[in-house]
Every structure is written in C-alpha cells, then in structure tokens.
Amino acid sequence: MTSYAAAGVDIEAGDRAVELMKTRVARSRRPEVLDDASGFAGLFDASAFLRYKRPLLATSTDGVGTKVMLAQRLGKHDTIGIDLVGMVVDDLVVCGAEPLFMTDYIACGKVVPERIADIVGGVAEGCRLAGCALVGGETAEHPGAMGPDEYDLAGAGTGVVEASEMLGPHRVTPGDIVLGLASSGIHSNGYSLVRHIVATAGLDLEQDVPELGRTLGEELLEPTRVYSLDCLALARETEVHAMAHITGGGLAANLARSLPPTADALLDRDSWTPPPIFQVLAGHGGVPQEEMDRTFNLGVGMCAIVSEADADRALALLEERNLPAWVLGQIVPGTGRAVFR
C-alpha cells in the first residue's frame, strides 16, 4: 500500500519530537508571548512597543553552516542550536536592538524525535541566554533529498530599538576606543576550511589535544558565545557608539562595516593572544596569517566602539559580567578601514 510513511515521511515521529521539545522551549518564554490555540503561528504582544517613541524593528536570519556536519559526525546535537541563536541575535544587537523572539527551521532526511528535541532544546537554551523567546518553528522531513542522519537548520529573529538610540557608524568619531570581546572559540564560521584541514591532515576528532585540554571534536563543537545581554547592558550603562559582530570575513572586514567613511580603526595585534585552536588549525593546515585573518574570528567574537571617556567603565562592566574584554585599538581619521598596526 502506498503511503506517506512508505515514501519516507513519519508523521508520528514528528508529533513525538514536538512533545519532547515542549518543556525545553518553554524555558525561553517571555511575558509578551501569547499562545495561539491552533499552533500555526507564534504570537507576541506588540503593546510592549508603546513605551517607545519611535520603535524600529530589526530582523536577521542565518544558519550555522557546515558546523552541523561535525555535530552529525560526532553524534552531539544539543549545542548546535545555541550556535544558531548566537549567529542571529548577535547581528541584531549590533544596531542596539533588543532581541525579542526567534523562529527556527530544521530540514532533515529522517525525523528522529530525540535528535530533533536535542537540536530545538539547544535553540531554546540559546534564546534563554539571549533573553528572547522561541515562538515557533518548523521541522521538515526530506527523504531522498538528505540522508537519514543529515540535517540543516536556520533561524530568523526580530528585535526592537528606539530610533534615537540606534548604534552605528554615524556615531563613531576619531578618539573612540575599540574593545575586543572574547569569543568562545571558532563560533560558527570557517568550518569548510576546518573540515578540509581535519580531512587532509588526517586529524582524529576524538583524540585529546594537549594544547586544547580536551578532544579536537569537543573544541570544534564549542558553542558560539551569545553576547546580546552583555552588549545591551553595555549600551545601556556606557556610551557605546557602534558594535561589530565578527563572523565570516574576519575581524577587519566586519569591523569596517561599523565605521564611517572618514575614520579608520587602528588595531593592535599584540593586544590579545588567539585561543590555541587557531594555532592548531594553522599549523596542521599550513594556513597563512592572511587567510586566517579573513576566515576566522581569531578569538574576537564581537567589537564595541565606545567613547574614550567611558572605555574603563565599559571594561569594568564586562569584567563584572564575566566576559573577557580588552582595548583592541582606537578610531583615527581615515577612509573607513580596519587595519592592524
């Protein structure tokens, strides 16, 4: 008998996955979230915007790239969702927007309820860390298009910022200080190069690496740091002019996006030591410094451009929040570039 199940789609498994993830998703709930009895849409009470004079909605969408392939290879699926949230919400906070809610989308070759629940549980935990709500999502089974153990995920987020408080290049002036906010590791960019190095150098993901203090696989799956609450606190309590989320393209290219055409960011490469994983990859892969610079964050996951007068206070606040940060450089007259001195 021909059926949807015979074609490879298991509706009952999908229903079980939903039941397994409900408790984890509930942990990300915000007071503004309302229940839609039909379950077809996520609802958010927009009356919260009445306290704004001119609320601007910000939106971002992203995925986690080929890092999912390492999660699949190692059979660890409960942190890749945190990576997804970090990639989305930390783009929102660059303009000063508070992340409000997210939705996710998972495509897979076969719905394994426990695996899907782990993935979505990670998304929910990331939302909790970011202070936003996971209000909905979709899991799609694509037999034939993907293998039974393959999946990919993407997400979209929405935030809000008062128009007069929006951060960006228009606020940056010579004399401002560039702060580097430490990454938790590679985050979620450059994994095609990572996988190439692992394959060509014959590296064992389950082998302990002395420089890392754990296995290579554990290091490579370290979740992306979620900065949103720290960055919002920084913007609320100090004079922040702009931020930059350091993702694909590396430090210089992403920081340049937050500069006006009349200023440069002069960065001190000696102000920090990249985490050991980057030396391990460069050494085994024979990757030149220029390529490392434009592929990886090298230990700087976010930059904040603050007024010179508030730099010490900003560093003290980040220290109180247990987020390592340091003076990375200074804004000088220029042409909109970020350069190392």
Automatic annotation (TrEMBL):
Residues annotated as signal peptide: none
EC number in record: 6.3.3.1
UniProt family annotation: Belongs to the AIR synthase family.
Subcellular location, record wording: Cytoplasm
Top-level taxon: Bacteria
Catalytic activity: 2-formamido-N(1)-(5-O-phospho-beta-D-ribosyl)acetamidine + ATP = 5-amino-1-(5-phospho-beta-D-ribosyl)imidazole + ADP + phosphate + H(+)
UniProt keyword list: ATP-binding, Cytoplasm, Ligase, Nucleotide-binding, Purine biosynthesis
Every PurM-like N-terminal domain range: 50-161
Keyword Nucleotide-binding assigned: yes
Chief localisation class: cytoplasm
Keyword Lipid biosynthesis: no
Protein name, entry field: Phosphoribosylformylglycinamidine cyclo-ligase
Record pathway: Purine metabolism; IMP biosynthesis via de novo pathway; 5-amino-1-(5-phospho-D-ribosyl)imidazole from N(2)-formyl-N(1)-(5-phospho-D-ribosyl)glycinamide: step 2/2
Source lineage: Bacteria, Bacillati, Actinomycetota, Actinomycetes, Streptosporangiales
